[in-house]
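Progress against Task 2.4 (sequence-to-structure conversion) is shown through the following example record, which the project officer requested during the mid-term review.
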Amino acid sequence: MKKEPNPNDVSLRAVARRLDISIMTLYRVLNNVPTVKPATCRRVLEELNRCGYYAHRPTRRRQAVLDFTQHYYLEGLGLRLLHSLSGKNCSCVCTDHRRNPEPFFNAAAESDVAVFFSIPDDEIIRKTREVNPNIYTVTVTTRSSADVTVTADNTRGGELAARHLHAAGHRHVAVHLAEEQPTRLERYKSFFAELKLLDPACRIDVIAEESGSSTAAACRSYLDAVDVMPTVIFFVAGGYAQSFWDDVVRPEPERFGELSIMSYDRPEDLFGGDAKFHPFDRIEFVPQDILDWVEYYVTTRPVLQTRSPIHTNVAVRLVRAGSVRTVSR
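Structure tokens generated for the chain above:
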């Protein structure tokens, strides 16, 4: 007697058997291969949805809303993605939910995917899903409750920075923090934890740069008041290190010239390839790696058994440029 398929069996091979198609045809549907008949695509996706997978029903032309904020670095990444998607059968609408939320939510209601280059909070993600329960959400370079987060491996980056400074003998470190956004806090927390693990007696100070202040003012205020001068300052966002060098170190080399500096990010990504900048020891990654993954998730939406967030981290590496000196322990 032939055994009836179990409706609760959600393996892809079981789905293929129930639909009387090959597993390769099912994989082609999941990867949006255009040679599969539209009727077959509909059957596959309807069956996956019936089995409890979180699967999309493709439209003739995919529509994406790209949300920006007033952030030079993220805006540059978003424009590169916009240019790339324009040639891939994808219509894009650009918005800014912070300054003008209504156009954003109107676009989200009619889009297949929302890509945030705007550091959204969880409330924005929730409201986006309210206006369009089927929309797929992607955040870039920061963690959130979106369906997909694509970012550099900030935890690994913080650990590498801590190991580098520890190996060079630094036991009193100041960490510059401006705008307590998730990405920078993630880098700081992993750095703090790793350095304390390597040496529980080490000292880690925080230089907090308030909104509306300047890097020079925040750092000078700290350095003028601290009881013992740190041997190194770690900037968890690269542009601030350059500002500190230009506005504090260069004018007073006799006072601050021996202070080591460590940074984050590739200078050419922050200032442009032709800009002049001081080389710092740093943690860096390749932004194009992030964009490649974001484009993949926009054009090839994953099929999930539950709507569980996906976190994709691109690799980071330590670059030595001579700005971190070895000190006596």
